[in-house]
Amino acid sequence: MSKTIFLVDDSATILMSVSAILGKAGYSVEKAGSAEEALKKLNAGAKVDLLITDLNMPGMNGIELIKEVRKLPAYRFQPILFLTTESQQSRKAEAKAAGASGWIVKPATADDLLNTIKLVLR
Amino acid sequence: MDELTATFIDESRTLLAAMEGGLLQLEQADAGDDNVGGIFRAAHTIKGGAGVIECRFIEAFTHIVENVLDRVRAGDIPVSPGLVSVMLACCDHIGALLGVLVAGQPAPPQEVAAEGDALRAQLGQWGDDDGQAADCADGSTVPLSEAVTASGGGVVSSDAWHISVRFGTDVLRMGMDPLSFLRYLTTLGEIVTIETLADAMPDAAEMDAESCYLGFEIRFQTRAGKAEIERVFDFCRDDCALHILPPQSKCSDYLQLIQELPEDAMRLGEILVRIGALTQAELDAGLAAQAQPTSVEFDGDESGARAPLGEILVGQQAVRQEVVDAAVLKQATVKDRKIAESRMVRIQADKLDQLIDLVGELVISGASTHLFAQRSGLSELMESTSVLSRLVESIRDAALQLRMVQIGETFNRFNRVVRDASRELGKDIRLAITGGDTELDKSVVEKLGDPLMHLVRNAVDHGIEPAAVRAERGKPHQGTVRLNAYHDSGSIVIEVGDDGGGLAIERIRAKAIARGLIAEDAVMSGAEISNLIFEAGFSTAEQVTNLSGRGVGMDVVRRDIQALRGTIEVRSTEGVGAAFCIRLPLTLAIIDGFLVGVGSATYVVPLDSVVECIELQETTTGRNYLNLRGEVLPFVRLREMFEIGGDVPARQNVVVVQHAGQKAGLVVDRLLGEFQTVIKPLGALFQHLRGIGGSTILGSGEVALILDVPALLALVTSAEEKLVSPAPSRGRPSGTPDSQHLILQPSE
């Protein structure tokens, strides 16, 4: 049974391109265009093996989302990755403190992305 | 072949030679660790290079050799003659594999592969793959190993990485499963052993089910570097205690890499990160620790001084002490070496050849300018052209000097030949080398290898008698083969001698008669008979051995030497020894010549062979001899010899020439003085001509022929001998066998 990856990003381009890569690699992909939308879906009991979120989003940002997700009993121990850039080193620590498992540095190749996912997925 | 491969092959050949030299030294005397280290490094560099050009068969074989050498270096394996022999055979095999690479074959052919397998089997006796833990030879690393052992009971294996990781208690709460890291690790390599440590696990009552208390000691086999391994633990690096210790073999890799780093001034940390011994994160941690004054420092003698980064890194178990030491040494030597290297310039051979060609043209046009200046009668012009020609002469000498190399390197190669051959034959033979610093043209040195090989092998095989015979003759048990080189009147003389049995004159004579080389009743001196061994198809070895005696030896040697405008002769005393003497011209391109005129023709005599010039006093005997201060001097009339017409002038001159201790006179019309001669080879059409060695262009644009003095001397001598002896062919010397023209007997 294929693993489900929940992708949260305000950019439709990113959602489309990343989900294409993940789909091709055999993962099921759930998408959300904002942190609020993502939380709503998770609260509704969506089955997710891995959450990948952008940090900079209008409204609730990625770090707040990670904190909220960690409060949900079903997702306390699920891996969470965040998308970041080299210039956001300080936010990396912040996100880790919020409970993120790891990160993907943008721009990333498809291989980088898939390798990182392979590492954190059970 | 691409440039990288060519570089690799070139470099590897040099390294193999160094390895071989080191191994031979190792056998003779315990030359110390440095020597073993050098041998190891050579093997190691070849392996590394093979990896870079992705030549797997060389890499794989050299890797095994390297492993054994590493253990020799560490003192695990004692040096034994058996080991050295196998190692030398391995050198040969690597050489053969390089040949395969040069030939562009994707894999070694069957016989080479079989040879490799046999050697692998032999190397197996030194157990290169056993699981014995090989600690660093360097005592300074022992505490480190102990620390690892104490913390986890893991053992630092000789060829596996050791990863020690204690996960942070929050790792599960971060959404990470420790197993994920281990699983991901296997994508980089193979986990050989893994030990789970639960020491940190508290009593059940106090245990938090959501915390992680585990640690792992992992032996990990991989081709990946330290940074790659560290990247696996990237996400938990900040929260866990991670130590990645390189395998033993990697340790020496680092040392090698340090050696190979470009000669840039670098900081210690930079060096270690560059070679992969240290990751950037480890360096950052080390630097942070350095910036913070620690209690140790306050207690220390040098209060206020910061601990060196190297010490901190070793303390943090980030790198091994010996790697730090090597890096520090590298730092120190970078400056010195930079200075030394700037004194040497490597240059392509064809650029040099081009320079020599141009200098040749310069000499010719200089001569022409000089000639016209003389004709013009302008004293100022003449003066300036004579300055010019002196300068040209200096340039010529300097340019030719560029091509000169010492023959020592070529000679040293024969240490191995003599050693192997004498072992095979069960003889005890040493090679004595003298005159290794004698310089000669590089192109000549290259072509000398084969003939010398023949001569040395012959000396070992046929020359030196078996031990029993030597004892009977009262000679020392150990036979001696000598290689010697020296300058002699414009020639280079190379001698290959032995203190063996010498040539068996009667056997050679009998054989020569049997082969139809000489008439049964021929009257010949001992030296003449000795030199018959240079005739094609001549071999006196009763037993054909592996080494020589195939009957193709000496005539090939003579042909090789002749191709270099040289001569070869043999001196032998039966029962005492034999010596082969090779005479070669000093240079192949430009010589100092002496210009003489006969009728309308002009000839050049190499100045080195000219002794003196005298006026010819016509004798009444009609024989071609004259009395030179009580000495009998045979001479030849060039006018007759080259069939030049015209009237004989009233005064004729004799140019007395000398070669290999023998003198003769050349009768010419005019003496024209010294002349810088650029040798232009004669075309194939003229190659059969005797007495002419080449041609040159005079300042006037005319062509002059260069006389081949050795050949002329031989003509003179043999012609006179024919006159004296009752041999059938009286008269002109053209009917004598080829050999006697070019092989000279010493005047005894």
TrEMBL record, chain A:
Organism: Aromatoleum buckelii
Positions of transmembrane segments: none
Residue positions where 4-aspartylphosphate is found in the record: 54
Domain Response regulatory: 4-121
InterPro entries hit by this protein: Bact_response_regulator, CheY-like_superfamily, Sig_transdc_resp-reg_receiver
Keywords on record: Phosphoprotein
Protein name from the UniProt record: Response regulator
Automatic annotation (TrEMBL), chain B:
The keyword Aminoacyl-tRNA synthetase belongs to this UniProt entry's keyword annotation: no
Keywords recorded for this protein, A-Z: ATP-binding, Chemotaxis, Kinase, Nucleotide-binding, Phosphoprotein, Transferase, Two-component regulatory system
Name used for this protein in its record: Chemotaxis protein CheA
Species of origin: Aromatoleum buckelii
Known EC number: 2.7.13.3
Domain Histidine kinase: 388-588
Pfam families from the UniProt entry: CheW, H-kinase_dim, HATPase_c, Hpt
InterPro entries linked to this entry: Bact_Chemotaxis_CheA (IPR051315), CheA-like_dim (IPR004105), CheA-like_homodim_sf (IPR037006), CheW-like_dom_sf (IPR036061), CheW-lke_dom (IPR002545), HATPase_C_sf (IPR036890), HATPase_dom (IPR003594), His_kinase_dom (IPR005467)
Domain HPt span(s) in chain numbering: 1-101
